[in-house]
Amino acid sequence: MKPVHPDHTAPADAETRRAVAPVICYPVEGLPAPDLAPYRAARDGWTKVGETQVPAREARCFRVPAGHFFRITSVEGPQVGDLNLWNATNLAERFYSGKTRALHGTHLSSGDRMWSAHPYLRPMATITDDSLDWYGFDAFGGAVHDVIGTRCDPYTHNLLSHGGQYHHCCHSNLTRALADTTGLSLAEAEGHVHDVLNVFMCTGFTRDTGQYFMKASPVRVGDYLEFFAEIDLLGALSACPGGDCSAEHSSDAAACHPLLVEVFRPVAPPAGWVSPPVNGYDRSHGR
Ligand SMILES: [Zn+2]
Fold first, then answer.
1. Rounded to the nearest whole angstrom, what is the distance from the C-alpha of residue 227 to the centroid of ligand 1?
2. Which of 12, 55, 94, 107 qualifies as a FRET site for 61, CA 20 to 30 Å off?
3. 248 CA distance to ligand 1 centroid (A)?
């Protein structure tokens, strides 16, 4: 983190340098922004075609065909979820948290998209509804549904707890779920687990030190985050051992609750929708 007492004195023009206005790295005008109206209209008369209960401190996989919707809902009590997405027929195409963050900002909501990794880099899912969109940014700089944290994992826990072994971090939960669904070994499955969308998690960076923080999620029973599958998806959702993340994770200390994933088939796809092709870069890299 940035030192409170730096080793080097500030130059004479320090304030002038600090005063330079920031430039948005990826102006959203350059993105093909989705029109949510056709997506939302397609929900009329939809049919629920599947549901998956994710037990507390566990993960489960689910499949969503392109053109279908899925919803993650808080049931029983406040709970955050760690979401991984893959192309259902190609695990190499997986959610790219870092580029999604660069494109949409630190926290996602309606109209934002979950982008896939290189060389695919296309929308995997579009967020079509968010019952917590009223939250915005709080006085601490916290907001909901982040792509800044990673997933709690037993390796970091081992480092910070001086040798601790804990097996229900989201990383391990997602690994077991993917192995169970695909038949891959745990070691093989682990390599496909990636940085997540932290569903319902309320996080930010401290203003003074830039440290990642979490606080009790504002999610309540019935709150949901809804997605439209742009391509055939395999998803995995972990009900984090942090519960609502008000205190700690990587232990069984926090109160935890299940999460519900529901899949809906619309009567017809959104008007004008076509499943996006993979990225158009020719991959010649200048040679
Ligand atoms: Zn977790």
1. 21
2. 107
3. 10
Distance CA 25, CA 270 (A): 31
The whole-angstrom separation of Cα 132 and Cα 109 is 8
172: Cα within 13 Å, side-chain hemisphere: 14
The parent domain of residue 258 ranges over 52-265
Q: How far away, in angstroms, is 82 Cα from ligand 1 center?
A: 6
Domain assignment present for 31: no
Question: pLDDT tens, position by position, for the chain (287 residues)?
Answer: 777 788 999 999 999 999 998 887 777 667 777 899 999 999 999 999 999 999 999 999 999 999 999 999 999 999 999 999 999 999 999 999 999 999 999 999 999 999 999 999 999 999 999 999 999 999 999 999 999 989 999 999 999 988 999 999 999 999 999 999 999 999 999 999 999 999 999 999 988 888 999 999 999 999 999 999 999 999 999 999 999 888 876 677 889 999 999 999 999 999 999 999 999 999 999 99
Q: Would 130 be classed as within a structural domain? A: yes
